[in-house]
Amino acid sequence: MQFKESAIQVGAQARDKSDAIAKVGELLVKSGNIEPGYIQSMMAREEVANTYLGNGIAIPHGIPKDRELIRETGVAVLQLPEGVIWNNDERVHLVVGIAAKSDEHLTILSNLTDVLDDAEEAKRLATTTDAADIARRLSGQDHAATDDSADAAPEDYELGFEHVVTSPHGLHARPATALVDIAKTFEAGILVRNGNKVGDAKSLIGLLKLGIEKDATIRISAEGPDAEKALETIFNALAEGLEDEEEAAAEAAHDHAVAVEGISYEGAVIAGISASPGIASGPVCQFRRGRIVVNEKATGTPDQELARLDDALTSARAELTALYEDMVQKQGAGKAAIFKAQGEFLDDPEMQEKARTLIAEGASAGWAWKLSYEEHAAILGAMKDELLAARALDLQDVGRRLLKHLADKVEDDPDLPDSPVILIADDLTPSDTAGLDPTLVLGLCTASGGPTSHTAIIARSLDIPAVVGAGADCLGLSDGKEVIVDGSSGVLVAEPTQKDRDEADKARKAFARQAEAERNACYQPAITTDGHRIEVVANIGSVDEAYAAVVAGGEGVGLLRTEFQFLQRDTAPSEDEQYEAISAMIKAMNGLPMIIRTLDIGGDKDVPYLSTPEEMNPFLGVRGIRLCLLRDDIFRTQLRAIFRASANGPIRIMYPMISSLEELRAAKAITEEVRKEVGAEPVEIGMMIEIPSAVMMAEEFAREVDFFSIGTNDLTQYALAMDRMHPQLAKMADGLNPAVLRLIRKTVEAADAAGIWVGACGGIAGDPLGAVILAGLGVHELSVSIPAIASVKARIRSLPMAEARAFAADALAKTDAAAVRALKLA
Predict the structure, then answer these.
(1) Residue 567 to residues 461, 562, 599, 605: CA-CA distances in angstroms?
(2) What is the pLDDT of residue 413?
(3) I need a surface site. Which of 200, 625, 753, 796 has the fewest CB within 10 A?
(4) Do the beta carbons of residue 72 and residue 32 sit within 8 Å?
C-alpha cells in the first residue's frame, strides 16, 4: 500500500504516550482513515496491551469491537526525534498508527519487523527529515537499496506441493499448532509460502504472521534427509483437515449445554471446582497486579543470562504441561489445545532467537524476553483477524508467565473493585483476599487453585460463591461482561442466555430460602436421625469472630488461631496484650468451650522480628511447635497468658505441627511448668494431626493427649507432597483424596482404642459432603468457618449415621478425589 502524504509527520514532539497516540490518530483522521472516536479505541488498546515493538518503534491501534469507526485501512507515522516514554523505560521515536479494516497493512508490519532487526536502520528512520524516506522504507520500495542482503525472504525448496486452504478460518491457531507439531518431528527444513511471504513451518508465530485465510493457495516445500516423508505426512494431514477451527467451534458449541445439579446452562460454560457454595451474577472485574520489573542490562555474563532464560523456559513449560493435562482430563483435548499452543509459543524459534540475540548484545534475560514476546504479540495483535488478535493475547499471557520467572521485582499493588462485581483472577494470595469486601465481591472465580487454596478458604469465610481451578479461559473475559458464578456446581457461565439468567435466579432464591431455613435452625444440635451427635464449632481469629460464632450457632471454638496477635507488627505481643485478647474471646463465648492453638508461625506466615533464617522449604522447616521449642521465651509468654485467661471460661490447649513424641513431650513439659508458675487449674491438652508421621504414631500419641484435631489442609499437603498454594498442583491437593481419608480413618481408630475424641478442622470439614464423610469416619467434632456452621449442622441432621458410615466406606474405596466428589448423597 502507498502512504498518503498527510499521513507522515517528521520532527514532531509529544508530551507523553497519550499525546503521541492522539497526534498519530489525528493524522489518520486527516487522511480519511478513521472517525475521531477511533482515537479513544487506540488509547483503550494500551490499557490491555503494550504496543511497543522495540528499537524505538510502537504501533498503536484500536480494539476489534471498534472497527466500524475505520473508514478505510491506513497507516500513519509520527516521527519523534527526541522520543517519548512509552512504558517503563521504553523510548519511542517512530509511532506507527494502524487502522486495519483489510489486510493491506500486513506489508507494513512485515517491513517493520525487518527494521526491528536492524537497530541502525531504526535509528536512521527516527532522525531523517524526509517523510518520503520513511514512506519508501515502510512500504518496501527501497528495502533492497538499504541492505541488499537484509532479511530477504528465503526461496522455496525444490521439493514441495501446493494446497488450497478450505477451512473457513484459514490456517489459524489450532491447525497451525498441529502443523508445527508435525514439522518438528522431521529433520528436514520445511517452509510455507503464502503469496510473497514465507514462514518456517516449525515456528507457530512464523505461520500465524503469514495471515493464511480461506481459499488461499499455499506452497509447502522441504529439503533434508527426510523431506519426502515430511511432505507426504503434511499432505495427508492437510487433506484430513488438521485440527480445524470449524471443528473446534462446533465442539465448543456442543459443550455449551452442560447439565449441572438440575441446571442445564445454554451459555458458554467454563468448568472449575466448587470452592464456596451459592450462585451470583454480575459484571466481570479482572484482578490485575502491578508491573513485572526486569532490568535492561545484564548483571551476569551472556552465558549466565542464557542459562537463566533456559531455566525459566523449563519452568514455564512444566506449568503449561500440567495445565494442559489437567484441562484434557476436565474438558477434553479441544479445550486444552490453547495450552498446547502456548507451549509452542515458548519454543518458537523466532522468539527465542530474538531473545538470545539481545542477550548476546548485553541485555538481561528478562529484558530480552520481554522485548521479544511483546514485539511478536504486537504484530499479531495489529492484524485484522480476530482469531489472530486472540492469539496475541495468548502470546502475552505465556510471555508474562515466563517473565515472572526472570523478574527482578513484581510490583503487586492490585486495584480492588469499588462497585459490585464478579472478581476473576489467576489466583489470590492471603494478602489479596484480606482486602476483599463481600458487599462488592458478589462472586469469585480463579484460573488456578484448589478447594483448600486461600481463595477457597477466604471465600467460604466471607460466604461468597466461588469457583477455583477454572483454567485460563476465565482470564480472557473482558471487564464488564456479565457472567454467572455457580459455586455450588463449580462452573462459570461466561455467556448466559436469558434462560440461564432465569434459572440462576430461581436457584439463587432457592439457595437463599434453604440458607434462611438453616440459619433459623442453627441453634439446634447436629444430631443424626438415628441419634448420633456431632459437635459443630467455629474457626476464629478475633473477638468479633468469637461473637459471630455464637450468633451463627457454633457450639464452641475448635480452633483459635493465635497468630493474629503476632502478625503485622514490629515486636512480639506482651503477656498482658495476649491475656486481654484471649480473655475477651473467652468471655464472648459465654461459657462455650474454646480450643486455643499455640503459635503456628512459619510456612506462608513471615514474622520479621522473630529473625528466623530464610529457608529453602519453609513448609518443611521451623514452623509450628518447632518454632515454639526453639523460641521457648515466646512460647512460655503465650502459655502464661493462656493460663491466666483460663480463669474466665473453659479452654483447651492444642499444639500444632507435632511430628514426634519428643516434640510433644517437650511441649507438655514446658506447659506444665508454666501452669504451675501461674497457679492455674489443669486443662485438656491436645495435638493437631497434620503430618503423616503423626498418623503412623497415632496409637502412641493417643496415650499422651486428651484429644486429636485433624488439620485436613496441612495433612493433605504433606501426605500428597503438594503445596496447596502451588499454581498447578493446588487443585489436586484435595482433602477428599482417598489417601487422606484413609489417614483420617487410621487416626480415628487409634483415638477410639485409647478412649479419646477426635475433631477436624480445615476445608473439607466445612464442606457438607466432606462433613458427612468425616462424621461417617468417626470424627466427633467439626470445626468450620462461621458461615458454614448452619449448613453443616443441617446436613448432619438430615441423615442417619448408618448412611454416613456407608457413604464414607464408599469414599474410602475410591481411587481419587474426583471419584469421591462424584458420589451423590441421598
Answers:
(1) 19, 10, 11, 8
(2) 53
(3) 753
(4) yes
